[in-house]
Amino acid sequence: MKKIIYLLTIVMLVSGCTWGKAVTMYTSFTDTKYPPKSENDEILLLTSTKPDRPYVEIGIIKVMKSAMVDSSKEREMIKKAREIGADAVIDIKQVAYGTEHGTAIVFTDK
């Protein structure tokens, strides 16, 4: 019985540690570094349509957090897109419970 209580306590502590911050990862497709975007720059999030402007794909952004609502995941995705200098994130999909990813792009007609 003590072992069960001990194991349950450990499980509760470990799962409690994952409740906080989201994990956002970026995998680059290129060695090119783009300047970060400012808070005033609009970052487009597109799930099914492609932009009608020319662009280059620069990498994949993945946001993982099961307890987050979609708007929180979108904010995390926009935050990472700004950091890497992306103009938009396209093909956003839920790939697993609590995990979304999308392709970061930079417009080439600026």
End-to-end distance, in Å?
66 Å
CATH architectural name: 2-Layer Sandwich
What is the succession of H and E elements?
HEEEHEE
Regarding CATH, which class? Answer: Alpha Beta
What value does the Rg take, in angstroms?
Answer: 18 Å
Strand content: 25-35%
Overall geometry comes to globular
Q: Uncertain spans, ≥5 residues at pLDDT below 50?
A: 11-18
**What's the number of helices?**
2
Total count of domains: 1
Q: Structural class, from helix and strand content?
A: alpha+beta
Commentary on this structure:
The chain is an alpha+beta fold and 110 residues long. It has one domain (21-107): Translation Initiation Factor IF3 (2-Layer Sandwich), CATH 3.30.110. The chain has two helices and five strands. A five-stranded mixed beta sheet has the order 1-3-5-4-2, with helices on one face.
What is the strand and helix layout of this fold?
Blueprint: H1 2-17, E1 23-28, E2 44-45, E3 55-64, H2 70-84, E4 88-96, E5 99-107
Parallel strand pairs: 2-4
Antiparallel strand pairs: 1-3, 3-5, 4-5
Summarize this structure as a short list of keywords or feature phrases.
single chain; 110 residues; alpha+beta; Translation Initiation Factor IF3; five-stranded mixed β-sheet; 2 helices; 5 strands; globular
Summarize the structure.
By secondary structure, the chain is an alpha+beta fold. The protein contains 2 helices and 5 strands. The chain has a 5-stranded mixed β-sheet with strand order 1-3-5-4-2, with helices on one face.
